[in-house]
Design brief:
367 residues; alpha+beta; five-stranded mixed β-sheet
């Protein structure tokens, strides 16, 4: 009898060992898949690629019905970094930039570990707008230095896919990796932009313009559409600096850039060319349309003076020159075409200055 009991005990131990081995193999497989997904995020080359990996990449990897990511962007900095690379932030599928994350879901304020459970319309309706009929969801916090920088949201039509009884270790780790990737991508974008941005005005610098204009010329050639260039300069800028000092001159340039920026599209390229001279590229715009915009800019900039710190009003006017490339003809030397467009716009700017300033001159217009 003792021998039978001993044999039964051995069988139970073997069965238990088999179960543990099976669980260990399953966990190892889960770990390998999780590591592969994390490496996928870590390999993202830039911010746009990372956001795509977080949404469409993880949706495919986890075989989910919906994935969204809410990104904290209170100062619109991340959106500006993306727009500087020509990304239309409104077209990013599944990505929501928020001034305050709690405006999407109030529970985000206390989200320190992944939350799994049923998808309730009143609590989670904004997480999956217009998407699949999500029955269960997972909210994965992205935290850096105890700050919530975003939330990754998984949704499934299967009510049992995410429940409060499931462990969250792997998802928590994924959230940590995603948060690091997001921070690194934003920092890389900042570093790139710092080398291509004018510190005073926040506009791009001449180096960026020289690269971007060749890209825009190539795009204009492919589409057979016009590309306009506008050169503008603050009138009598040296007089401002000589009269009120360099800080006053800096204030005038910042104010001018701010007024112009409100009048151009996100697809336009604005750059400080040097000193008080600036350039704007207007894709899919001919000389006549660019001239209309240039006149609006001239009028808006001069509408009111710039007030210095002591309240002194400083008159602000600009001179503008406009030229355009029609995008026609065989593909040629992009660099030469780009330099010619800049030179032609500069000639028109010189005409405006010579004609008395505070005016717009368009190539082909009255001499």
């Amino acid at each position: 009898m003792a021998r039978d009991d001993h044999g039964a005990e051995i069988r139970k131990l073997r069965e238990r060992l088999a179960i543990l081995r099976s669980e260990a193999e399953a966990n190892e497989a889960i770990l390998r898949r999780s590591q592969a997904r994390e490496l996928f995020l870590l390999r993202a080359a830039d911010l746009r690629e990372l956001l795509d990996a977080l949404v469409s990449g993880l949706r495919a990897a986890f075989d989910l019905d919906a994935v969204t990511v809410c990104v904290s962007d209170p100062q619109h900095e991340i959106r500006h970094l993306l727009m500087a690379d020509g990304v239309d932030t409104d077209s990013l599928e599944g990505v929501r930039f928020q001034e305050a994350l709690e405006s999407v879901a109030p529970q985000f304020t206390s989200l320190y570990r992944s939350w799994l459970g049923p998808c309730i319309g009143s609590d989670h309706g904004l997480l999956f707008p217009g998407g699949a009929e999500v029955k269960s969801c997972a909210q994965i916090p992205l935290r850096r230095q105890d700050q919530l920088v975003g939330v990754l949201n998984f949704g499934s039509r299967d009510a049992d896919r995410f429940t409060r009884h499931h462990a969250t270790d792997f998802l928590d780790h994924l959230g940590n990796v995603a948060a690091v990737c997001l921070e690194n991508a934003v920092n890389r974008a900042r570093l790139v932009r710092s080398g291509l941005t004018d510190v005073l005005t926040g506009w791009h610098n001449r180096r960026y313009l020289q690269t971007r204009i060749r890209e825009e010329v190539a795009r204009a050639q492919r589409a057979g559409r016009s590309l306009a260039g506008v050169f503008l300069a603050v009138a009598h800028f040296k007089r401002v600096s000589d009269t009120w000092g360099h800080p006053a001159g800096d204030r005038v340039l910042r104010e001018m850039a701010g007024r112009v920026e409100l009048m151009i599209r996100s697809s336009d390229v604005a750059a400080r060319y040097g000193g008080e001279e600036f350039a704007i590229l207007l894709p899919a715009t001919d000389a006549a349309a660019a001239g209309v915009l240039a006149e609006r800019i001239r009028a808006e900039v001069s509408r009111q003076p710039v007030f210095l710190a002591d309240g002194t009003p400083v008159p602000l006017t600009v001179s503008l020159g406009v030229a355009a490339y029609d995008g026609q003809g065989e593909a040629g030397d992009l660099k030469a075409i780009a330099e010619e467009l800049i030179a032609r716009a500069d000639v028109q700017l010189y005409r405006a200055k010579r004609g008395g300033r505070d005016r717009v001159c368009i190539e082909g217009g009255d001499e």
